[in-house]
Design goal:
Length: 64
C-alpha cells in the first residue's frame, strides 16, 4: 500500500502531465479548468496543505 505522501505526489504529477497534454493538443480551455480545479496543489508558494485521509477499510484492516 502506498503512503499518503506517495499518493499526493502521484496526483500532483498526474495533474501537471495532464495539463501539459491538454495544452499540447490545443485543448486550452480544458487545461485552464484543470489548473483552476487543482490551483492550491499547484501553487509553488503554498507552504502547507490541509489533507484529510480516510483509514483503509477492508481485508486486513481494523474494520474487517
Amino acid at each position: 500500500m502506498q503512503t499518503l505522501e506517495q499518493t499526493i505526489k502521484h496526483a500532483h504529477d498526474w495533474t501537471l502531465n495532464r495539463v501539459r497534454f491538454l495544452e499540447e493538443n490545443d485543448r486550452h480551455n480544458d487545461a485552464v479548468c484543470m489548473v483552476q480545479e487543482f490551483s492550491e496543489w499547484l501553487d509553488p508558494n503554498a507552504e502547507d496543505h490541509d489533507v484529510f485521509s480516510m483509514e483503509y477499510i477492508g481485508n486486513g484492516s481494523d474494520y474487517e
